[in-house]
Structures are given as structure tokens and as C-alpha cells.
Write a structure and sequence with these properties.
With about 400 residues, the chain is of the alpha/beta class. About 25% of the residues lie in helices and about 30% in strands. The protein binds iron/sulfur cluster.
């Protein structure tokens, strides 16, 4: 299993069934999009994704891939009963791909298996999601009774202490995954809980993957708020609580362990989590749109969208624009400027940078930043008086990530 494994969502939407669903990420993301996560529907565009081919006639999902199924629902959802047989058929036709079926409805699996299931298909992994001991005791026994070739247990969000010893002892569980609560959830994950499961997995030689700490992680009574997802992953890797069986991932893991002990890492965790100037610049470079503001003669801010920066050099960011535009007129009178870049992804990350803007109209600068496609906008080419360059010099940045704000001097 890799972080970038393909996902296949044959249907979307779900009903909350237990404590772990309280801050369900699918509901959270749907809400951000103005949708209702409880509305269940079949995926119209990617219903048969595993069978889709590219222009060369090759499957889009390559042979040997690990496909995470129903990441925006539950494969054993009651409302999906009428669609599941067809989904089984799709998986039947791709024996060269491993499908991971994650569920909180373990009690339904047995009655939802296909007629030719026999003692299990080699390309199907069942993963049952358990957030605390109550749910582990409720769900794992169903899994252990199943005829199945691959059984995994996922402790995400890990919100209560769990003892898996008696289940791991069965020898039927291949892998245990764990991770803290994310997105809008803040129920804490305790270091001791992770260590306990890790020790049990080591005892029974079961693969163990600690994926991320979650938003709130507690060690030695100290509470760490870790809103940045990348840091959550790094901290989980650095904990040393990993027993990965995939040699490629093992290699990557040791590279990432950063030659620091876990306690050193936690000292880092205790500090404010700062974005570096370099990370801010890298983030800006990736964004396709710049939201740019100027101040008019009456002191009102004007905001508009511009294409991505033409060039970034240290604290200086260059844009091409129209000389007769309002913003140029504003900047000539008041050089104060502010630009916002954002990424509407998992963590809703964005950065606001403030500083000063200069209007550059000299021919040498215009030529330096000229691009052939600008001809579409400036008919007279690089000498067109309508074409000019804005040079923004950044003084301070405010980084926003998943409700956390940091100020960075640039
Ligand atoms: S079962 Fe999974 S997808 Fe469904 S509501 Fe709970 S957490 Fe969300």
C-alpha cells in the first residue's frame, strides 16, 4: 500500500454508524462543496474505472496496483446492495489488481459475498475500520470468521485505547493501520495507544503502519496540535512505530527517518510548526491563480484574480499586466499590495503575502519577461505601451492551513 494508490469510488455518500464517523472526512469535504454526504448515489463517470482503458488500449489502473475502494462511502452500505453485484463483477475481471474493501459494516460482509467467492478471491483485501475497543470487539470477529485471503484492520481515527492481542494471535490479520483524527476532528491520539498496538504487531509479526498522528497527539501528558498533514505523516514515520513488509516502503521509511530520535522529533513537535520561506515560495510556484489587491484613492481595497506569477526571484515576484488597468493606477499612487494564493485541497491551504508593488515600463524589463503568447493580449508585441510588468516585493507572509495561521517574515 502506498499513499498515492489509486482509488475507485463506485458510489458516493454514507450514513454515520458509530463514534468514528463523527467527523467523517467525506461529510467534511462534501460540506465544503455545498453537498450533503448522506445522499447516496452511484458514480456516473467512474463507475467502471478498473475496466477503463487509455487511448493505447491499456487499462488505466495498471496491473499490480493496490486500489482503495469506496473511500467516499462504505462498500457494504445497505443502499448499495443493488449495485454491489456489478462491482464484484468488475473486480472479478481484474484478478491482476488488488482491491481493498474498507468497511465499518463487517456484519454485512458474509451476506454480501458473490456466489463464486469460495474460500476467497486472492485479489480482495478486507479492511475493517475500528476506532476503539468497543468497535474492534464488535467488528473484528466477523472478519475472522470469513473465508478470505487477506484481512487488514484499520484503526482510523484511533480515538480510544485498543488491545488487539487476541485477534492478532489468530494469525489471520496481515496488516494493522493506524492514524489519528483529521480534517475537522480533534479527538486526540495517545502515543501509548500506538506503542501498544505496535508492540503487539511485533509480537505476532504482523505488518504495522502508523500513517499519521492526526490533529492532536498526546505524549507524556503533553498535547501537540499538528494541523499540517505533512508534519503529521513525518512525525508518524519518525516515531519508529512501523513494521512495514513492503521492501520499497521500508527503504523510503528509513530515508525519511531523518537520523533523529523520536524524542528529538517530539521536541520539534512541541515548537510552533513553521513554514519556511522556501516552502512558501514552492507553494506559490504551484498555484495557477493569484488573487491580487491594491488600494484605491479613497483607501478601499480592490481585489481581482490574475494568472500565476511570471517569475519569482527571492522576495520579488513579477507579473505581466495592462498599463491602463486600475491596479496599475492604484499602485502608482500607493505601492502597498497584498496577494493571496490558495489550494482548495485536503487542508485548504493558502498564503497571503503583503509588501510593495512597483510598476515597471522600461523596455529592458519588458523584454526580459516577455512570453510569445502575450501577443494575444498586447497586439503590438513587446513594445506595446499597454504591456508592463508589476514587481511585487514581499515583506511578510501569513500561512493558513486547516484553521491554523502562521506569520512568516520573508
Ligand atoms: S462509515 Fe465511513 S464513510 Fe460512512 S459515515 Fe462512517 S466514516 Fe463516513
Amino acid at each position: 500500500m502506498k499513499r498515492n494508490d489509486p482509488t475507485w469510488n463506485p458510489w458516493h455518500g454514507c450514513h454515520k454508524v458509530s463514534e468514528g464517523c463523527k467527523n467523517c472526512f467525506m461529510y467534511y469535504l462534501d460540506e465544503q462543496r455545498g453537498q450533503d454526504g448522506s445522499k447516496i448515489s452511484k458514480n456516473k463517470t467512474d463507475w467502471n474505472l478498473p475496466l477503463k482503458k487509455d487511448r493505447q488500449g491499456n487499462f488505466k489502473i495498471k496491473s499490480g496496483e493496490f486500489v482503495r475502494v469506496c473511500m467516499a462511502s462504505d462498500f457494504f452500505l445497505e443502499e448499495a446492495d443493488e449495485w454491489r453485484e456489478e462491482a464484484w463483477d468488475i473486480m472479478r475481471k481484474r484478478p491482476d489488481v488488488t482491491f481493498s474493501l474498507l468497511t465499518k459494516r463487517a456484519h454485512r460482509i458474509k451476506d454480501c459475498l458473490p456466489s463464486d467467492w469460495g474460500d476467497g478471491w486472492a485479489n480482495i483485501t478486507f479492511a475493517v475500520s475500528c476506532e476503539n475497543q468497543k468497535r474492534a470487539d464488535e467488528r473484528i470477529p466477523y472478519l475472522l470468521e470469513l473465508p478470505a485471503k487477506h484481512i487488514w484492520v484499520s484503526l482510523k481515527p484511533f480515538i480510544g485505547e485498543i488491545d488487539l492481542d487476541k485477534y492478532l494471535r489468530s494469525g489471520k490479520i496481515e496488516t494493522v493501520l493506524c492514524g489519528g483524527e483529521n480534517y475537522a476532528g480533534e479527538r486526540p491520539l495517545h502515543h501509548e495507544w500506538v506503542k501498544k498496538i505496535y508492540d503487539q504487531c511485533i509480537k505476532y509479526d504482523v505488518e504495522f503502519i502508523f500513517g499519521q498522528t492526526g490533529n492532536v497527539f498526546i505524549k507524556d501528558g503533553k498535547v501537540y496540535h499538528i494541523k499540517d498533514y505533512k508534519t503529521q505523516i513525518e512525525q508518524a514515520l519518525a516515531s519508529g512505530f512501523q513494521n512495514r513488509k513492503n521492501p520499497k516502503i521500508k527503504e523510503k521509511q528509513s530515508q525519511n527517518q531523518i537520523n533523529q530520535s523520536y524524542s528529538e522529533q517530539l521536541t520539534f513537535l512541541g515548537d510552533e510548526i513553521k513554514m519556511t520561506k522556501e516552502e512558501i515560495i514552492e507553494f506559490i510556484k504551484k498555484q495557477k491563480t493569484s488573487i491580487i489587491s491594491s488600494v484605491d484613492d479613497e483607501g478601499y481595497p480592490w481585489t481581482r484574480a490574475l494568472i500565476q506569477p511570471r517569475y519569482i526571484d527571492g522576495n520579488d515576484i513579477y507579473f505581466a499586466t495592462y498599463t491602463s488597468s486600475n491596479k496599475v493606477s492604484h499602485y502608482r499612487n500607493n505601492s502597498k499590495a497584498c496577494i493571496y494564493f490558495y489550494e482548495k485541497g485536503k487542508d485548504f491551504q493558502g498564503v497571503m503575502i503583503k509588501g510593495t508593488m512597483k510598476v515597471l515600463t522600461d523596455q529592458k524589463t519588458k523584454e526580459k519577461f516577455w512570453m510569445p503568447f502575450y501577443k494575444r493580449f498586447y497586439k503590438k508585441g513587446v513594445t506595446d505601451s499597454e504591456y508592463c510588468i508589476l514587481k511585487f516585493t514581499c515583506e511578510e507572509a501569513e500561512w493558513f492551513s486547516n484553521f491554523k495561521v502562521e506569520t512568516i517574515k520573508m
